[in-house]
Specification:
The chain is an alpha+beta fold and 160 residues long. It contains four helices and four strands. The model has no long low-confidence stretch (mean pLDDT 90).
């Protein structure tokens, strides 16, 4: 299941990036939900919020992404062996997100972003499916940590 999830996220990420980049959309800003959701093609040479942009950091960002992918894949396998389904999903999402953006950096020298939201008047940074998988993975990890902490507190109270 973990590999199917990783492959599905990677295929959806790369296919969506290809379709946006190959379409006339790469030259436009298309409003899908007025005042809220747009498709806006952007080439991001940096990381989140375009930090470290400029091309010189591309090689370093590739190394960091490759190390992250390897580490997350290891953690995914360990979680799977321990029977922790939620952690397996968390690390599969994060690994596939890291790999999706790594592929862009290696092949193009930048990451293709296109999902553009304005939330409560704030123009949120443009992102892609790989970024979404990473964020969902982190969100699920936080939820799991909260659940585990509550379980430990409940077990501690019953043992006293």
């Amino acid at each position: 299941m973990r590999y199917i999830l990783m492959i599905a996220v990677l295929v959806i990420d790369q296919l969506s990036k290809y379709l946006i980049a190959a379409s006339p959309m790469q030259y436009a800003h298309m409003e899908l939900i007025p005042g809220f959701f747009y498709l806006t093609y952007a080439k991001n040479t940096g990381v989140a919020w375009s930090m470290f942009s400029g091309g010189q950091a591309t090689a370093a960002l590739c190394v960091v992404a490759a190390v992250a992918f390897i580490g997350l894949s290891y953690l995914m396998e360990r979680a799977h062996k321990n029977g922790n389904k939620l952690q397996t999903i968390v690390f599969a999402l994060m690994a596939s997100g890291a790999l999706g953006n790594l592929i862009d950096r290696l092949m193009l020298g930048y990451v293709r972003d296109f999902l553009d939201f304005i939330i409560f008047g704030y123009d949120f940074p443009i992102f892609n499916i790989a970024d979404s998988a990473l964020c969902i993975g982190v969100g699920l990890m936080i939820i799991e940590m909260i659940i585990e902490e509550r379980k430990e507190k409940a077990d501690g109270k019953t043992q006293v």
